[in-house]
Design a protein that fits this description.
The complex is a heterodimer. Chain A is built from 14 helices and eleven strands. Chain A is α+β, with helices and mostly antiparallel strands. In chain A, strand 10 and strand 11 form a beta hairpin. A five-stranded parallel sheet of chain B has the order 2-1-3-4-5, with helices on both faces. In chain B, strands 6-7-8-9 form a four-stranded antiparallel sheet, covered by helices on one side. In chain B, helix 2 packs parallel to helix 3, helix 4 runs parallel beside helix 8 and helix 6 packs across helix 7. Chain B starts with 6 loop residues before the first strand and ends with a strand. Classes of the chains: A alpha+beta, B alpha/beta. Chains A and B meet through helix 8, strand 5 and helix 10 of A and helix 1 of B.
């Protein structure tokens, strides 16, 4: 317990280094494994192929080993049985030949062996060629150096007077020194000159050849079998995977909007059924979308027609009202007032109609941007100018802070002016006669315009609601401007059309601020705004 | 008897609107003539020789756009479109087929009359003046009094509006005009309204005076600001 911190103090830097290395290796290996894992998970064909090869491989190896083992032991057993039979059959010949052999006489033993080898019974080809070797009684040196090839265990068994066999390396042929795998059979021979052990060395060259051949054949057959199974597996998977891939690709194209794309479905198998169901689904989707498109087209057409049909009589009414309004000085007071009301309410009606048509254009998705590079300061000035009369009526002062240098922005000036007109109008409307402050700021990517009022402000949660259609903060409050209730909703749509932001902030009693942020170049995505949404003076108050 | 009342050809199929237009126009000292069918508009135009045309875009018989093109093919008489559609496509189509200006229904009668007067006013401009703009090897010469434009000895036929636009630019060759200023000077708008008017007419003007409208030398674009005349 006590030594633990000491250990840690020994080399924290070195430890950290080694930890870092371990970590980097681990991450690198991890990444490799991940990539391999991705490929593995990503390809059904690879998975099926690998699994098939593994399973077939194991089966083939087990069967092959078993088969080769059986064949080898069979061949060797047959050889041993034949060799023993031959040795036993040749026993009398051997005893005869060795009867007079004398180990002391150098030539006599060789002669005896030649005799044995030459004998038709012992020298027959029943068990193949062999080399006879004599094991002499212990103590007598053997001139035949091949005798040392005879294993000691075998000699021990044979000396006890039993015929025995053992596998051991033997010369390839009588005179050769090359050792090959072989079978040695020993038999004790008792002659007049003493007790001999006669060993027959059978080279197993032919048998080994047979076993090798069987081994090679089994190996090749096994490899061929595994390959065949692999190919079959790949072909079968391909037959399944290909249509699935086509289906996936087609689904992708459909998702991308190419509704006419279909899968070629032939036959009546499962794959064809999949294709058929897929195509049915695509047909159904296409029908639905066509129907919706048709509805949308009708809607747009209707909007356009309503617009025209309403506008023409409205123009006549408008002109008539203006005409009456223009000559109201000659009317009795009630009639004069009626003409006045007709005139002002027509303005409101027209504004509402225009806003409704604009909103319906957005809803139908036909609003489009007429973008052009322009100085936003002029647009801000126009938005303020449009509200000058209203501000005068409210007694509000409009303060504008704009940069001195021109600020070009890619925008649809008509729409941006409408946004600002709506924001300023809204601020004057809710500003309770206090100043309305407009600030313009920009950086390389974006330009922001904030419109601040110091009126009643917004209660928590209302900032999200102000852009709703026909929303009113305080339903009991009367409207001075006769605003349509659609202004901010349209402004929000206009801002969105520019890929811009329109946001609101407000606190009860502290007023509200609306911030419009637009990308300076068309098509750029906004990431930030050059101006804060919450006014700076409010932050200070909070501190 | 005061000055001759300008004659207005009103092409509109809505009888109530036409009648109301008649009341307003007569009150404002115009002499309106009416035709309700697009296919009879051109014939009426030839017979009445109006000073200005008010043309509804949606007409039975022949579409307003076709009527506009037909009139423009034989005359530079100012045409003001009455349209119920304020969509860019509709407005630009109307302007491209030759209309000088447009008012969107429902318009205020005062606004309509102001636009008509702005279009008619320029005919009264009389001042002996010759302007030259464009590249020195092939200048564009403008005789303001005679209402004639020549380039390389050939006369170029411009509508009064195109002529006014060119003269406005040529009178101050070094000045860059914003679209808003041009709208005020040429079209008589007091508040900046629709800059599409300027864009379309600059294109039409270029098609007539430039050697290659793709590479303008007479009416140059100043990116982000507006237009100016090419150096003389």
């Amino acid at each position: 317990m006590i030594s633990a911190p000491v250990e840690e103090r020994v080399g924290p830097a070195a430890r950290r280094r080694s930890l870092a290395i371990v970590r980097s290796v681990r991450t690198r290996v991890g990444r490799l494994l991940e990539r391999a894992g991705d490929t593995w998970r990503g390809s059904l064909q690879l998975r099926v192929g690998a699994t098939t090869v593994a399973v077939t491989g194991v089966v083939v190896v087990v069967i092959g080993v078993f088969l080769v083992d059986k064949v080898a032991s069979g061949v060797l057993h047959a050889k041993r049985d034949a060799a023993i039979a031959q040795v036993e059959a040749g026993f009398p010949v051997a005893r005869e030949a060795l009867q007079d052999a004398d180990p002391a006489v150098s030539n006599s033993l060789d002669q005896a062996l030649q005799q044995i080898a030459a004998n038709p019974v012992t020298g027959g080809s029943v068990a193949g060629p062999y080399t006879p070797v004599l094991g002499l009684p212990s103590g007598i040196p053997n001139g035949d150096e091949r005798a040392i090839l005879i294993p000691a265990e075998l000699r021990d068994v044979v000396r006890q007077g039993v015929v025995a066999a053992q596998y051991a390396p033997v010369p390839q042929s009588g005179s050769s020194t090359t050792l090959v795998r072989g079978l040695i059979i020993g038999e004790p021979v008792t002659a007049r000159s003493g007790s001999f052990e006669l060993y027959y060395m059978y080279p197993l060259t032919a048998e080994q050849h047979t076993i090798d051949l069987v081994q090679r054949t089994v190996l090749l057959a096994g490899i061929a079998l595994v390959m065949l199974v692999l190919v079959i597996a790949l072909i079968v998977t391909r037959q399944v995977v290909l249509p699935v891939r086509v289906a996936a690709e087609t689904a992708g194209r459909l998702a991308a909007g190419d509704l006419s794309k279909r899968i070629p479905a032939r036959g009546s198998d499962d794959i064809a059924r999949l294709g058929q169901s897929f195509n049915d689904m695509a047909d159904s989707l296409q029908r639905q979308i066509r129907r919706l498109e048709e509805l949308s087209r009708l809607q747009r057409r209707f909007t356009s027609d309503v617009s025209h049909e309403l506008r023409t009589p409205l123009t006549t009414i408008r002109m008539a009202a203006e005409f009456l309004h223009g000559s109201r000085s000659g009317f009795p007071p009630e009639l004069s007032r009626a003409a006045e009301l007709l005139h002002t309410e027509l303005d409101r009606f027209e504004g509402l109609l225009a806003d409704l048509l604009e909103i319906s254009r957005y809803d139908a998705g036909v609003a489009h941007l007429d973008s052009e590079s322009a100085d936003i300061r002029g647009v801000v000035a126009a938005g303020v100018e449009a509200n000058r009369l209203l501000a005068e009526r409210h007694g509000s002062k409009i303060v504008v802070h704009v940069p001195k240098a021109p600020l070009t922005v890619d925008m649809d000036a008509r729409r941006v002016e409408r946004i600002l007109r709506n924001l300023v109008g809204n601020a004057v409307d809710h500003g309770e006669g206090k100043p309305v402050v407009i600030t313009v700021a920009a950086d390389a990517e974006a330009v922001a315009v904030t419109v601040r009022d110091h009126g009643v402000g917004l209660r928590p949660g209302q900032a999200a609601l102000v852009f709703n259609r026909f929303w009113r903060g305080d339903p009991s409050r009367s409207r001075l401007t006769g605003g349509t209730g659609l202004g901010l909703a349209i402004a929000l749509e206009d801002a969105r059309l520019h890929d811009g932001w329109l946001q609101a902030w407000g606190e009860p009693g502290r007023g509200a601020q609306f911030r419009l942020t637009l990308p300076r170049l068309a098509g750029h995505t906004l990431l930030h705004s050059p101006l804060p949404l919450v006014p700076a003076d409010v932050d200070e108050d909070d501190e | 008897m005061g000055p001759v009342k300008p004659r207005v050809l009103v092409v509109d199929d809505d009888s109530a609107l036409a009648e109301m237009l008649g009341i307003v126009l007569r009150t404002d000292q115009f002499d309106p003539v009416f035709v309700a069918d697009g296919s009879r508009a051109l014939q009426a135009f030839r017979e009445t020789k109006p000073d200005i045309v008010l043309l509804d875009l949606m007409l039975p018989g022949m579409s307003g756009l076709d009527v506009c093109r037909a009139i423009r093919a034989e005359s530079g008489t100012p045409i003001i479109m009455l349209t119920a559609k304020s969509d860019t496509v509709d407005v630009v189509l109307g302007l491209e087929s030759g209309a000088d200006d447009y008012v969107v229904k429902p318009f205020k009668p005062k606004e309509l009359v102001a636009r008509m007067r702005a279009r008619l006013r320029h005919h009264e401009d009389i001042a002996s003046e010759t302007l030259t703009i464009g590249p020195p090897d092939s200048p564009v010469e403008i005789d303001v009094q005679a209402h004639q434009v020549r380039r390389e000895g050939k006369q170029i036929a411009l509508t009064p509006l195109e002529f006014d636009l060119l003269v406005a630019l040529a009178r101050k060759p070094r000045q860059v005009f914003t679209r808003e200023v041009l709208l005020e000077q040429v079209w008589g708008y007091r508040h900046a309204a629709d800059t599409r008017l300027v864009n379309v007419h600059v294109q039409r003007l270029r098609a007539k005076v430039e050697r290659d409208p793709e590479k303008p030398e007479v009416v140059l674009t100043v990116r982000g600001v507006g237009y100016k005349a090419g150096p003389p």
